[in-house]
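Checklist before submission:
- one chain only
- standard amino acids only
- sequence pasted in full

Submission:
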Amino acid sequence: MDNQLTARTEFAAAINQICSERGISPDTVINAIKQALVASFNKDFPEQAIEIEENEDIVVVADIDQETGDFKIFKGSEGDKTKDMTDITPPGFGRIAAQTAKQVILQQVREAEKDSIVSEYRDKIGDIVTGMVQRMDGYNVIVDIGRGQGVMPPEEQIRNEYYKLNSRISILIKEIAETSRGEAVIISRSDPKLLAGLFAREVPEVGAGNVVIKSIARDAGNRSKIAVESTQDGIDPVGSCVGQKGVRVQAVINELNGEKIDIVQYSQDQAKFVKATLSPAEGISVKFNEDKTEVVVTVPEDQLSLAIGRGGQNVKLAAKITNLKIKIISDKSDPGIVVTGDEEYEIDQLGLSTKIRNLLIEASLTRIEDLINHSEKLESIKGIGPKSLKKIKEQITAYQPSRITETESKPEDKKDKEDKKDKEDKKDKEEPSKESKKDSSDKKTDKPTED
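Returned file contents:
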């Protein structure tokens, strides 16, 4: 902020107070007052204003004494000093201008204050701060971040997180962006840099640079993977981030409302790194293509579900953190699935058209298991005809044939069980009648013997 005015008068003292409270320069406030005075003159004395506007060489300016606050309106050529211009201050203009100029001055001061705040936070981009949820503005969340407010648009929010008014949350100062209301400080809860910042805050070794976070793959609100490496001998990077009894990583998890975090050790050996990222699956073998951009991962059949993860999440994060295209197959006959890490939903691995994909998402069928177990819901979706249904089933079969076979055999198994049960019930009914006949015949034969 520029140097303050010498507070010899009430006017100068008032200017200094405004500048101190708002964090803006005195020149900004003085210029705002001058613009407000000219705007007030044009509004309240339109005839004179129009007459002056007709002459393009003549301009109206306001001059103000920064000590006393006395002001005058002048007209003259642009660039001339006020002493060379004509004084056209109307009688009683001070009283008339006061109310008219008030809103203009306030608006100018607000804009100057906003610019000052934005400039301050421009130097803080990438920092992690704690803010308080202030209000909801449509789909945006407005957060008090200290001197100003941060805007968190929907794409920067955690999908399954509820933002409660006056609750305190950790956020990332992401960028300064142009919005419909001018420049705004954009904050984020879903950015991977937030995770890195939280670990730097909670783990001294990360903050000091003894442990480096090499890469992060994040599915905000659900699960994340971070790869860490030690830069100093004798320091266990994974153990440092986990902490004694998991206290450090738990602090980060609590900040993110229960988001699961997998910490793996980074390795220059790509095969070793891929195996680490696909944990908890074990017994994995990997084979890279020639340019090492794609890897075929063979997993024991009983470990396949662990390697893929719920909704394909584990393998998707592994592909993202290693920056590789991963094809994962079981050690038995299986066409396997190919994952790049860019898939938003599990159904993205089926390679469906955009139209079909969007229809499935609208129907909340985002997982392969949903398509298998809710075939009646799939068939009832408008816009998906017989050809599309056939295409979807073919893709699912190529994805995991064992699951399709299993599902298709279930109705038959159920029918067989029902038939078997009916036969057993029928047999049970017949057997008592036979027993009763036998009993009656025994009685008949026994009776003469008694006599």
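Reviewer check: The two ends are 129 Å apart (CA to CA).
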